[in-house]
Design goal:
single chain; 781 residues; alpha+beta; Heat Shock Protein 90; five-stranded mixed β-sheet; 26 helices; 44% helix; 19% strand
Amino acid sequence: MPELKAARDKILGGQLAIISPSPELLNLIPTVQTAQPVEEAMDWSSLFATEAQPVSSAQSASEVESFLDELLQEPVQEPVKVPTEISKAVDATVQEFSDLEQLLGDSQRSGVNQGVSVGAGRANPSMTRANRRAGATQTMKVAVKQLDNLSNLIGELVINRNTLEDNQERLRQFLDNLLFQVQQLGDLGQQMEELYERSLLESSLLSKAARSPVPAMSRNSFGTEPAESAAHASGFSFDALEMDSFTDFHSLTQEMIERIVRVREATSDIEFVVDSNEQVTRMFRQVTTQVQEGLTQSRMIPFSQTAERLPRAVRDVSIKCGKKARLELEGRDTLIDKGILERIYDPLTHLVNNAIYHGLETPEARRAMGKNEEGLIKIRVFYQGNQTVLSITDDGAGIDLERVKAKAIANGLVTLEEASNLSKQEIYGFLFQSGFSTNEKTDQLAGRGVGMDVVRSSITELRGVINTDSTPGKGTTFTIRLPLTLSITKALCCIHQNSNIAFPIDGVEDILDLAPEQLIRLEGESSFITWRDNRLPCKPLVELLPYNRTAKRGGRYHSPSGADKVSVVILRSGDDFIALQVDEVLGEQEIVIKQLMGPVPKPVGISGVTVQGDGRVMPIADVLELVELSLDRLEVNHQFWQSMSEVPATDTHTEPMVLIVDDSITVRELLSMTFNKAGYRVEQARDGQEAWEKLRSGLPCDVVFCDVEMPRMDGLELLSRIQQDPDLQDLPVAMLTSRGASKHKKMAVDLGAKGYFTKPYLEEALLDAAQRMIAGEVLLK
């Protein structure tokens, strides 16, 4: 019966067996307890010799035992040809042992206290079942779906944490601004106090002047006459130098200074709370990071759990191909995400099969070349940065580049002239084309052109890349790079066409701020830069990802000094590097990856999306596709996105933007209320300098209402700068001022103003003028 055989095999192997307490099994306990000790059981030759009699009636089992006995008793000098029947029997036996070992591990970890426990021997009587349980690590089984749900919850927690950190950063900025304003207010109060004290001193000095009526020039700084003497409440009279005389202005100044002190104290209290919140936020980040890492570790399983199936596959394919192959595994204990490991097994198996079929030579050919008749296939698994790397290497004949080029020409993938200029990596790329095969005949293992393209697509779905390297006569190496996890990763956030975009950090090689002259453009060629003594093609990201985004006015400026620097991100995919020009680099951030679902095809160059702290959706760039697009290796085949790209670009904002420039906060607020009620979006600037900086930073403005007299930069200078800027010269500007003289109006018209209004103004007139100027009408001639 199967239960007895399974229990017997475990007992003979020195393991703990759990047997259901049926009567017929209980009768066998005395016999089972006489099994061999662990030391003897580990001697496979004696084990199978002991088991020969009970299974002598089974011819196949006897053949297996005899064959293994010969292998273990005598050193094998020459490879032994394994009969097919014995191979199948060994496979079945190995599979049974694997299943039994897994069941044994489950029973030991769960601490099952049912059934009858039978010791493997009497070698160590003190080792009781309780001792074994005490020394074992307590484990339990958890459904993978439950871990996936926890991963999703952790992702939401990370999003909320990012929101909290963003709010904390904004709160710190507001607090810093408040502290600055309080400091300015304190300085102003101090100046007022000093000015008042100086006025008192002037009054005291002037009191010594003639007792006659004070002439106009003798008045103090505040326009008041100096007092000769003052009557005290006690009835005595004091000279101005003998007793200070305080006015209402002095009392008001003192009260303002006291209020400033109270505001500074309240600001200090707010700063203390903000500092405490920052500490809590940091602790929250540490805790969420630890929870995330712990959950990630719980999803990790050793590579050996999948790798143990590969030797059997190598043996089977070797027998079918008439070749000899040996598999070496390095990094068996390397932990890989269970979801990734399950999805990478088929591509890994296909690469191993290809190494045997296409890479390794026949034993006769290897012997003639001075190689070992047994070919070597080596799989290495290790971590590199935040990636898991799998390397599959064989010591076969390598890839015949000329043969691959000839096949590519025959299939119409490349012309003869183009083939002569191809690099090695470009030739290797043909191997991953659908329907491409260098094998002349078709069988179950090769020749159909199906496999390598599936391998690449499977790896790409895992956000990984595969690279090829081969040396003729020495072998081929395929290197697969995969992310450690598929749910949460670090990314470099940038601004592209006034929208944020994230580049996974494992695909970012460098970040540069270059001067415009460092972008080199030769006649008939695209721009490029010199980076680490290499010439890299440099393209604006908008050329690779258009998607109907329109550049706003001033979009080329990403900061007040944006015209002096160009932000460039260096991306890497395998051995390929490209440079992409973006509007601005924001910094590194931890993001939660959301896959694009639904019937609409995935946009080219976009792998997914993430949710930002403010709730906006940010696309995640597909580094592999961007590199292929930049190097003209990828053809866009999605008709949906091609048709969408033909749609005329429109602004995503339907409400026009009004920029109000005035040094009076009252005027700015009143105008903001007027335009907000009319459905406009409003941006304010306190003077021409601030307005100019906002326009240069890419403010999507449609019309400007500007005062003439302002500090730092007046309205006429701002108007002149706008007209001189090629990106802003079409922006309509109307002057709104208290100066109604014809001279000021003529100057504004000459500088390019589209309208001129004087204060006080009528709301209806301004709203009508704004609508007409946005439509392109000029109100002044």
